[in-house]
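REQUEST
  id: r-88c1
  op: predict_structure
  target: Putative hemin transport system permease protein HrtB
  payload:
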Amino acid sequence: MRLVALVWRNMLHRKTLSLLTILSVTITAALVVFLLLCSEGLEQGAEKGYGPFEVTIGAKGSASQLALNTYYHVGAPTGNVPYTLVGELQKDESVDRAYAMTTGDNYNGFPIVGIEPGYFASRYGTEKQMAEGKMYGKLGETIIGSHIASSLGLHIGDKFQGAHGLIKGLEEAEGEDHEDESAEEEHHHSFTYTVVGILPPLFTSDDRAVFTTLDYAWAVHEGQDAEHREVTSILIKPKTLIGAQAIKTKYGQMNNVQAIYTSKAVADVVNVIDKGTGALTVVTIICILLAAGTILLSLVAAVNERKKDVALLRLIGKSKGFIWSSLIGEGLLLTVIGLVCGILAGHFGGYLSREVVFEYTGLQLQSFQFMPGEWLLIAGTLGIGVLASAGPALQAYRVDPLQLFKS
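RESPONSE
  id: r-88c1
  status: 200
  body:
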């Protein structure tokens, strides 16, 4: 009798227990793969998230909040800073590029961002051309990220009205005066945006933002004369690292203004998230232990059920090694099937959830990219399968065949 055929027949003989074993391994492997995809998305997002803009200037407050709002379009801004700072920065010898940003409105929950068109060439390079249409050039013209275009079905020439706040209904949550709120919304609804371009996939949070001219906020909200205009933040590409230090020191000393190292602020956020994922790691470890326990119980049950089979195989001349291999092989076969199903399920689950994950977190899941950590997953899972199989196999290996047959 061929070993492979025997292993396969034995596994099919206990369909329910084999299915439960495979299912436990599948769920564990899928969970680990999904966590690896999220971790890789977080690392890539942190790396690509702010481009060359090593220094960011905004209102006093949380440095992490300023970085998240400016580069990831998450959360509320820390406040506003005078627009006159932009002119000063552009004349500063330590500054290579400086772009002001205005935010505060949304369209269907996606942020509307005002920024100079040069931002895209500085961050993504000239090779990133528009997927469709052209760059905005005057008030009311917009370009939209690829995620918005696909999720909302917007095309070149479509028109829409924005709403106050970074998400739908934010103004109600802030408890604004109803009369002022109604007037504000009425003015928002009278201001029409026109889509003139669609960005290619950039694989950053800019894929889920609407971009327009810097002065849109002043036009929509009114009440800001030319001398007292404000912006949400200023993105700065320094010429050198020494220049970055000089910029941070100089502008960080101003009243109601903070200058931050963007990389440090983003790293602080990533560290906080890493600590939060510790709980998920614990859950994953528990799942791995449960999967190993399920394999162990499955093979213990197999040994107890097939004592006479084992005895008969030994009496007809099959070696202890053959018995050992059949039991180890059964555990490995269950493990391999569950592992393959789990890896496929993890990647497919990442593919199905990529739009939702990106919309709510800004993380890009490369769902069909093989993660380096998956090699460790494969080796570890197979190792656990062998270890869980070794105990029952050793039990059958040591028992005398005549005793098994008599019992």
